[in-house]
Amino acid sequence: MKMMIALVLPLVLVFGLINCSDSDQDYTSEPSISGIIKEIADTSILIESDMGDCWVSLNVKGKENSISFNIGDEVVVYYDGNIAESYPLQIHTVHAIILKTSDN
Questions:
Q1: For the chain, which residues make up each domain, given as ranges?
Q2: Exposed end of the chain (fewer CB within 10 Å): N or C?
Q3: Do the beta carbons of residue 58 and residue 43 sit within 8 Å?
Q4: At the fourth CATH level, which superfamily is domain 32-104?
Q5: Please, what are the averages of pLDDT over each run of 10 residues along the chain (104 residues)?
Q6: pTM (2 d.p.)
Q7: How far apart are CA 39 and CA 61, in angstroms?
Q8: Is 61 exposed, middle or buried (0-12, 13-18, 19+ CB in 10 A)?
Q9: Which residues contact 82 (CB under 8 A, 6 or more apart)?
């Protein structure tokens, strides 16, 4: 019995780690906000959304943000649900920033 546990436990751990990859993460269940980029700074972008203007951090959690943005681009931001209620609004913990195109 102990031999069986010794063989199965490492397999479970390895498969668990494989499933922790964010490469195919589905963020549709996360809170999101969409809008048009009005301004681009070094570490954040200012978007105009239905909620008003909002600074969004470009420090995407767990990933390098390799997308280059331009003023006028439409984006969808998936975040942790917390928005700092300042003016303009601020989102600090970002899970993904998706550039919207006419295809999606």
A1: 32-104
A2: N
A3: yes
A4: Nucleic acid-binding proteins (2.40.50.140)
A5: 68 57 58 93 93 93 73 93 91 90 56
A6: 0.69
A7: 21
A8: middle
A9: 91, 92, 93
What per-residue confidence (pLDDT) applies to 92? Answer: 93
Reduce the secondary structure of 7-28 to three states and give it as a string.
HHHHHHHHHHHHCCCCCCCCHH
At CA 58, angle to CA 28 and CA 83, rounded to 5? 65
Q: Is 45 exposed, middle or buried (0-12, 13-18, 19+ CB in 10 A)?
A: buried
Secondary structure class of 2 (helix, strand, coil): helix
- Cα distances from 34 to residues 14, 70, 77, 87, in angstroms, run 37, 15, 6, 17
